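Intended use. Records like the one below are meant for learning the mapping from a protein sequence to its folded structure. Do not use them to infer anything beyond what is encoded.
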Amino acid sequence: MNITRNNVDALNAVITIEVAKSDYAEKVQKKLADYRKNAAIPGFRKGAVPMSLIQKQYGKAVLLEEVNKLLQDNLNNYLVAEKLDILGNPLPKVTEDFNWDVEEYKFEFELGLTPEFNVDLAAKNNLLQYKIVADDKMLKDQIARIQKQYGKLIAKETVEEGNDVSGIFANEDKGINNRTTLSLDVFADKKTVKSFIGKKVGDALTLRTKGLFDDDHKLMDFLAVGHDDVHGLDIEVTFTIDEVTTHEPATLDQELFDKLFGPKAVTSVEELKAKIKEDAEKQFEQQADQKFLNDVTEFLIASTKFDLPAQFLKKWIQTAGQNPLSPEDAEAEYAKSENGLRYQLIEGKIIAENNLQITFEDLKSYTSDVIKKQMAQFGQMNPTDEDVQGIVARVMSNQDEVKRLSEQVMNEKMLNLFKDKVKATSKEVSYDDFIKAMYGELKH
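Structure written out for the chain above:
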């Protein structure tokens, strides 16, 4: 067997495999002999069927099968031996008039080669690394929510100032039908607030969405409308009241502090504020980290320039799935997946160049932390190490879970690397401003 490679260009190559009779003849004869032993053909005893008949009936199929096995094994071995980094899988070049009746064959396979490129994490950029701070307004609002949540709920028939109302926002044309609960102070216009005063359970109000709230994004929550639809939305909606409630706020005393954080963990309103601020900013840090990771990813895709073997990949996409795609569908699929492929290559290079590896201990430690956090959410603040490790062992026996957790560990390693090497500008923002930044609406 002879294997040669012709590099068409930096991104494409053709491998030619020449197969001689001596490469496959022995395997074909052995397979046919096995067939002969077990063949049940009328008129012949089992094992006594003439080889010429076996050859005639099974010879071509066995030849194709054995030659195909040879091709796959030798092609794979060649790619490994030559250390060829390819995209997709080798594509056989189809020959319409291929002749299987000769004794020597020649096969050609197209390859898409991985491009050479450099990743510069320290390149100049306009990236921002957000630090979200819990400001005084947020702390005040959160304490008010806590007092409301742990206070006494009183049902009413008529709406008065300071009450909460539950009901259904509806607009048939826009398909809006969403039940929600809101406090009257969420409305931007005092006239809207006044229109609720004196209304009873069962009453319906007609409201315009334009300027209904101080931030159009609130329409997403209260009306269940998508982000792309809320800006400038100017329609009439009905709000039908089905419940009116008022709260007798909980007293900010030691009983409430203990209920929230455990005995004597917090002993004053000032300590309560500090604890709320600390917990909120920990949660905000996760959201800011995810945005930073996403922003760096987009930056690297845009700034790391290299060509791909596009035509090869489109041909490969046509045959890669369960059902063949048309050239047009493959073109569309390539357009959708190109940036994902580019980042996959960039990420692989970053991982290799910075020796980012996931050890068993990394995975075990990360899984243990995740489990402890989940247990804490259900009130198990101090689980035993034996309990935690027992759950870790069960989780890590599931291959799907191990794969998912491994991706999370690598994401964490990538994030830490980006924080260390990507020269982003730090910016402190409130949570409201961070949400605007998420949607590209915050001016730098």
